[in-house]
Design a protein that fits this description.
homodimer; alpha/beta; TIM Barrel; 22 helices; 13 strands; 49% helix; hydrolase (chains A, B); Metallo-dependent hydrolase (chains A, B)
């Protein structure tokens, strides 16, 4: 069979290496990484192994209840607090992450900050359909709106017995007067937080299916939307998105903005702000933040940002035309900002791409006439379905020439489409934590990402809706991916980060500069790692 | 882009068909099925769609608690009772299933029958380490043993206050005298059942990780083992395994027998029965059952059975030699029975195949010298790990020339190994319900089977340990696979069943005869379907 075991292991090494040759880290992991990187990779593996035992494994001293089961890559919402205390998370927080290619703007700033931003503005009001009591608080969501001064109301609390349901209460006043038996102002914050984020109990018990958790997920957008779609808040929100992303080590942002609402509210509470105005503001804030960074000598940490124009896949096909025209208009006015077009929303429940073929193909023709280029960057295959509309969206995304695939969770089932993605450099925007919380996978070890990586499908790690899921930035997503694989290591994370620019909408020149800047960050990161863990260095 | 939508849809159809061309049903589903089969496939799809709404979906009138979420392919232990009431299950029960290629003998007969068989024998005794009370019953497992007559004890109940812990009580007596406040004899049966099966609460709450559920899983074998390893029970058990499998539409059984214990107990309670005696009995019972079937004119329903010699992957490598020699001895004596060799047990926790390379390769050499052939049929990749020992077992199974792969749950991550399986006709014995209960997947829609099918990897559906999981026969496994895919249909199930012989250890001639017999069963099945659902026929 085998003349000796030496021969066996030689054959084995060859087989393993052939099996892994399509991986993004194949060349680098194959002993051609430089010495410092090799050392850093071993260090990170050692820390991971240690924490797999001491924190997630048999020697763990983390206290949890009987029904909670600790393991690396476990349910994120249960693990979150534990993760933040690990060395590996500290390291992932420092890692330069490259480009964030899949995030929805209205879910990128954490809820405490959003509330702080909203509280600055007396126009923002809140109301409830019932007086809020200890019994009803769990089932009643707040409704927010920016009112015109003439509409400002004098009601003083949604928890007072005298509150007339449906009356608007100024946000600050409602918070200040929130019934002390419901926790006072902090109780108000808690109530708001539970309305616009997903709790572990929801994700893992009461709403533990894709269908049910999407109901809650959608309601978070419904509730938070009016706070964000108020121009004075929106501007601060965008700035915060840039700054917090940079702080997390993300240097380029290609964000989806949902333009479903044709207008948003101005400071005076009038719903008249156009998409064009918004993009003007976006551009201005972007330039300000870039200038800030330049002044701090940190220009390598932030390359810039572009926008993927999005609307929701429930609109009737004949209404899509308005959005496509709008997108073209914006592209003409802000050619450097508009990077693509997408249709978003729950694929299992909403319209398949085939419903929109006619307007979408005309959109492509129209671009040719105008000499502009707005690639599709479609969500597709964000589903557990096998041969369902949502799964089949992958065929249409590909046939329509999508530049990347949002989620592509079911892509692993499609050998021909995987081949096309590999050949055409169509990257899958993989959102590990989002997929887990929205019940496509129960934990990271069940996620198809390692399969995609081994099959050589281009991927990029993304956060999707961090404000709802609590995975702010990209550190948590990198962490969850890193702990759930023994094949992947720091070098894999490096390649994931570094290649993200390649799949972005930057032009070739910008990409080169972006990677150059990233390489500098990576060097600094390695230096930090060496200083931080000198004992483990050997 | 596309001249018109007709052109688009033509391109789309071509792409879908190319994407699915490696599927086992590709040729047949591609409109070359005959008219009757086509009709039957549409009928089954219609019933599935109806039940997806009326039973598992929005129009369901099945009553469940708040935290239970109905959907097709949901957690089996919660769904089991609902499944048995569906039309689709009735149909899958009737389907001729072909060969069962992965099941462990000591978990193939359901617990009620096992108890009934055990109660026939006064030698079988039970004991507990404490008096059983309402408080302790949940945490105390019964210990069984067949005693020699001289050891028979006179203790009369494990629930009496006078019971001296550790004293043996005759099984029948212990059952008869089980405290009425603990449910009397029925309470005894319930206690026994909970010790040797997995409950929904265990699988989905208290033991909801691979590691924890395996502890419970192993304890079921530990507890039930002594009942089965008593020759008088063993013989009835084997006969029941054959008969109940035939009743479920399985016509060939390639079963793994765990030969870890070098001797089992004879009727007199002496641990002296050899493996050779066991195989002699197996052969005799097999022939009796075949003869029974012949006399009933049902010889097409049962082709026969072979045995995969197994021991557990915790034994020290130098002890493996004994088992390999034993396996060769048995093969020489029962060449028609011994079909292969395997190492079983929890891959994540036990020794990797690499620990056994030396004896295993010598085993192969020895066979060549003796002119016999005992292929390896290894468990491998029954894990969520990525690059762990259990995952890497796949490399060794392949390098050692495995004939099939038991589980291969992580195979989808290995492009080169998938290629080798496709080229070499190495089938994966996929055990969908087992994987779900042992927490490799949370539900059928998360299972990698559809990906393996689309990539053209040969697969065979198997039940693994139905007595522990409650998935008796193969009907439940076929059901769970069928409801969790819109691509697969009755024709897919047909191909799964029919091809199972191809991957079996039957010789070429036997395979041909097996398929001929199966084809007759399939025809009868189609006739039954037509008669049973005349209204839906159109």
């Amino acid at each position: 069979m085998y003349p000796d075991l030496g021969e066996y292991f030689a054959r084995r090494e060859q087989l393993v290496s052939e099996d892994r040759k399509q991986r993004l880290d194949a060349r680098t992991s194959n002993k051609v990484v430089d010495e410092v990187e090799g050392k850093a990779d071993r260090l990170v593996r050692a820390i991971r192994a240690q924490e797999a035992r001491n924190i997630w494994g048999p020697d763990s001293n983390v206290e949890v209840d009987n029904d909670t089961h600790l393991f690396p890559g476990m349910a994120f919402l249960t693990a979150r607090e534990i993760i933040t205390k690990t060395q590996l998370f500290k390291i992932m927080s420092r890692l330069p992450k490259g480009a964030l290619l899949h995030a929805h703007l209205d879910a990128t700033v954490n809820v405490e900050v959003l509330l702080r931003l909203a509280l600055r503005h007396p126009a923002i009001h809140v109301r409830t359909p019932k007086v809020l009591t200890a019994n009803s608080i769990g089932s009643i969501q707040p409704e927010f709106r920016a009112l015109r001064r003439s509409e400002w109301d004098s009601a003083s609390s949604v928890t007072a017995l005298s509150y007339i349901p449906g009356e608007w209460v100024p946000l600050r006043v409602a918070r200040q007067n929130f019934d002390p038996t419901l926790g006072g102002p902090e109780g108000f914050d808690k109530w708001l937080t539970s309305a616009i984020t997903i709790s572990p109990a929801e994700a893992y018990r009461t709403h533990n299916t894709t269908q049910k958790i999407w109901q809650k997920f959608q309601s978070t957008f419904h509730t938070a939307g009016p706070l964000i779609l108020y121009l004075p808040v929106w501007k601060d929100y965008v700035r915060e998105f840039f700054r917090s992303s940079i702080d997390d080590g993300i240097s380029y942002l290609e964000v989806r903005i949902n333009f479903l609402h044709r207008y948003i509210f101005n400071e005076a509470g009038e719903e008249i702000v156009t998409h064009s105005t918004l993009l003007g503001e976006y551009d201005r804030i972007l330039n300000e933040v870039k200038e800030e960074m330049r002044q701090q000598g940190r220009e390598d940490e932030f390359i810039g940002s572009k926008i993927i124009y999005s609307t929701i896949r429930f609109i009737p096909p004949d209404e899509l035309q308005w959005y496509l025209d709008d997108c073209i208009t914006l592209k003409q006015k802000f050619p450097h900002l508009i990077a693509g077009f997408d249709l978003v929303g729950h694929e299992d429940a909403l319209r398949p791409l085939t419903d929109y073929l006619e307007p979408l193909t005309k959109f492509v023709e129209r671009q040719k006439e105008l000499g502009i280029e707005i690639p599709f960057i479609f969500h597709a295959g964000e589903t557990l379905g096998d041969g369902t509309n949502a799964d089949n969206n992958l065929y249409d995304a590909i046939l329509l020439g999508t530049k990347r695939i949002g989620h592509g969770f079911s892509l692993i089932k499609h050998p021909k489409l995987m081949e096309i993605c590999k050949e055409g450099g169509i990257a899958v925007e993989v959102c590990p934590i989002s997929n887990e919380i929205l019940r496509l996978t129960s934990s990271m070890p069940m996620h198809p990402l390692p399969a995609l990586i081994n099959h050589g499908v281009p991927v990029s790690l993304c956060s999707d809706d961090p404000a709802v899921f609590g995975n702010m930035g990209l550190s948590f997503d990198f962490f969850q991916v890193l702990v759930a694989s023994e094949v992947s290591g720091l070098i894999t994370m490096k390649e994931l980060a570094r290649r993200s620019f390649k799949y972005s909408s930057l032009d070739e020149n910008e990409k080169q500069l972006a990677v150059l800047s990233w390489d500098k960050q990576w060097k600094k990161f390695l230096q930090w790692l060496e200083q931080e863990y000198p004992a483990l260095e050997a």
